Amino acid sequence: MHRFIIVGGGAGGLELATRLGDRFGSTDGKAPPKAQVTLVDRNPTHIWKPLLHEVAAGSMDPFTQELEYAAQALWHGFEFQQGELVGLDRAARRIVIGALRDEEAGELLPQRELEYDTLVIAIGSTTHFFGVEGAQQNSIALDTVGQAELFRKRLIAACMRAEHFAPEPVAAGVDDGEDDPGVDPVPRIQVAIVGAGATGVELSAELRNTAQVLSAYGLHKLDPKHDIGIVLIEAGPRILPALQERVSLATAELLTKLGVKLMTGETVAQVSRDSIRTASGKTIRADLTVWAAGIKAPAILANLEGLPTNRLGQLIVRRTLQTETDDNVFALGDCAACPWPGNERNVPPRAQAAHQQASFLFKSFERMLQGKPLHEYTYRDFGSLVSLGHYSAVGNLMGGLIGGNMLIEGLFARFMYMSLYRLHVAALHGYARMVLDTVAHWLRRSTAPRVKLH
After folding, report:
1. What's the burial of 61, exposed, middle or buried (CB within 10 Å: 0-12/13-18/19+)?
2. Mean predicted lDDT score pLDDT of the chain
3. What residue ranges do the domains of the chain occupy?
4. Beta carbons within 10 angstroms of residue 5's beta carbon
């Protein structure tokens, strides 16, 4: 049997493993499989990464949205191996998975080797701190559920503590809003978000809703808008620099109405425990700092037996998604630098790209097993949507969806944004189960607080 190994159970990797398992695996335990499909991930569960800002704000309980890889493997005819990729032997077509350890129980699984005929690397991306002094030590990234939960708990603790303790005196030179008309100086607590891409913008909007809910449930008696400050810091001239300018302007207007302070054109030079210093000399008070300023590929990709990478550490792939030096190794999603014909940059690191590439590779592997040549992948940009939490959403639809390019916002944009996740659920479970999951999610939300309170 042909042996497929997919490393990384994110949006693209898990969708590909599911479709390959359904097509070539044995889902009933009776019929022999046509191919062996193995998914490798260092975590036991999957959560859609674009939801992590909601986890950080407490508006989503991750444990109700997580999917266990072992269960998905049983239901869809593939095998799951938990562990982290630590090595690759391309000559022997073998990967090395590191030992699995538990803080209390010690080593659970030893280091293992798995042989493949076709390897797909889909391990996503990690936060890029750009070597900024103190950034990694004094800020929280949102790469994992654990990091998002850590920020949520620290936010609740900061709100509860600020009610009973006065804020520290503002040091000279601190940009606390006193020079800006209409901005209340010295909030009791202040959250600074570095990076005004989709993650930073979405988190800032969600946090405003979180502050109101925490106050309503009595976890603090602060004024949600004036006592809890939210500052969004962006090095570029505008927020959402990767999207169209009119989307950026519409989003900035909505965030300003929510009381989010926008600081553009400010490059962060240093992050300390309670403040941020910019290259222009400004100092911003920060009781909590979230770093969402950029991404890079995991460091392991630079050590995979000569597979070429770019400056962000991404594997350089051809339009077939095969790596430049090995036809048996493919890459997709955020960790792949894939050409985008007609554009100066590569395919952007978005969930829609990972979904498209997973579907493309599924069809490519069907052709490959039939001895047919592989097609070339072409990215189709259907636009971008940014959630502004409970309040709204904004974005643009383009390409095949409407035959043009249209700015959308409000409830319709919010509905379209929510549909993206539901389409991901449908890709993993089918449309019938997706509908049931949607109803179950709605029922849970109707009988629980809008924000996780503990």
Report:
1. middle
2. 88
3. 2-125+297-369, 135-291, 383-446
4. 25
Lowest model confidence (mean pLDDT) among 6-15, 72-81, 97-106: 97-106
Superfamily of structural domain 2-125+297-369: FAD/NAD(P)-binding domain (3.50.50.60)
- Joined together, the tokens standing for residue 342 give 């007609």
pTM listed for this prediction: 0.90
Tokens of 279: 């290259």
pLDDT tens digits, one per residue of 345-396: 999 999 999 999 999 999 999 999 999 999 999 999 888 888 887 657 787 7
- The matching CATH number, chosen from 3.40.190.10, 3.50.50.60, 3.40.1180.10, 1.10.110.30, for 135-291 is 3.50.50.60
Query: Is the torsion defined by CA of 15, 17, 23, 28 positive or negative?
Result: negative
Amino acid identity at 224? P
Please name which of 116, 96, 89 lies closest in space to residue 307, comparing C-alpha atoms.
89
Query: What is the rounded distance in angstroms from the CA atom of residue 358 to the CA atom of residue 298?
Result: 20
Angle at 186 between CA 184 and CA 187, to 5 degrees: 80
Residue type, 306: G
Segment 24-46 shows an average pLDDT of 88
Q: Tell me: the pLDDT tens digits for 156-192?
A: 999 888 877 755 554 433 454 444 433 445 788 999 9
